[in-house]
């Protein structure tokens, strides 16, 4: 049998030969293409792809030349401007536009190395200039004196001197100038989270707080052993009753009086001698919302009447829980105001119960409340609570570091978000309203 011509000459199969010629021509054409143009319009589209999944470990510290923001969040008017066509490019790549509440930080900035706070030239809008000033004092001020707080063995009040302060250090000061802080236990770090939660929700009733490690020789060793502790700004004008048995209040009020006041608000004139009559009605909605999210029982339910407490709870160890049988004996605690704003509550001791399971949430904290602050409810409904809290907590380098960054903080933020959704369902089920309240 005669062989076919392509076999006799040793050539490859004709289709394979044609394919090889085409590939060679294509490579030759590519080598003669002009270089890509410079500028924004010549950049590769891959630079605009959606954020990659979150890595299991915290990312490296950000660069120091740009501001901190969050992926997917609306950029600040003071920051980088988004170019037209970015959304179209994402669609062309088959990628969704980022959600406005993606909780992954974009590591874009921070202060110089060694600073305990980082704002990157901008701060979250819910932190006021006064907040920032006080946070810097707490985080970086030199400890110049200490004082024990009566009935609080593990709490120290310290006087602070900030670098560049025109006033010289004055160890003998009485804290009336607002240059003192309260150092609390390492287990109270949740108070720093509570401060940021207060600001993110627009409540603005808690006192500035930061996390800090201390090294001052003035302090006892237990305060300088490397543990991270919260330090809370000491408000010099918080009013306390002169009664030594009830000095943690600005006004004395029992549970039954409190419920009656909530029921008759606007329906009857305020009776002379009514306790806490200077406090605006909307303040109780702020307090109830805040305490429910954090599960703070010490103010409205220090007897743990709204849930079944564990034997280790202070309300059980101090035999307070037994008083739940007689509501007339139940008192409110830490109902405080400042002389500079007697119509507004001030929230202190906000550590709460981060581990409280949903099955044991204390709904008694919400009892009698007919409306909640509109701005706070709007944040809960937006789905942005966790994302904004993450951005806010990032400012506090010591807290962020000690808790393992975003990965370490996420379980806590998810807990707060779930409690927020529970609260929204409660409002819907009880047909409660959200009303605007003064700042």
How does the SSE layout of this entry go?
Blueprint: H1 5-8, H2 14-31, E1 69-70, H3 86-92, E2 105-106, H4 129-140, E3 142-149, E4 152-161, E5 180-183, H5 190-200, E6 209-212, E7 229-233, H6 255-264, H7 282-294, H8 314-317, E8 336-338, E9 341-346, E10 371-373, H9 374-382, H10 385-393, H11 397-402, H12 405-429, E11 433-435
Parallel strand pairs: 10-11
Antiparallel strand pairs: 1-2, 3-4, 4-5, 5-7, 6-7, 8-9
Helix pairs in contact: 5-10, 7-12, 10-12
Would you give an account of this structure?
30% of the residues are buried. A five-stranded antiparallel beta sheet has the order 3-4-5-7-6, sandwiched between helices. Helix content is 29%, strand content 11%. The protein is globular. The chain contains twelve helices and eleven strands. Among the domains are: 129-233, no CATH class; 255-435, no CATH class. Residues 1-12, 35-99 and 103-114 have low confidence and may be disordered. The longest helix is centred in the C-terminal third of the chain and has 25 residues, at 405-429. The chain is of the alpha+beta class and 439 residues long. Helix 5 (190-200) crosses helix 10 (385-393) and helix 10 (385-393) packs antiparallel against helix 12 (405-429).
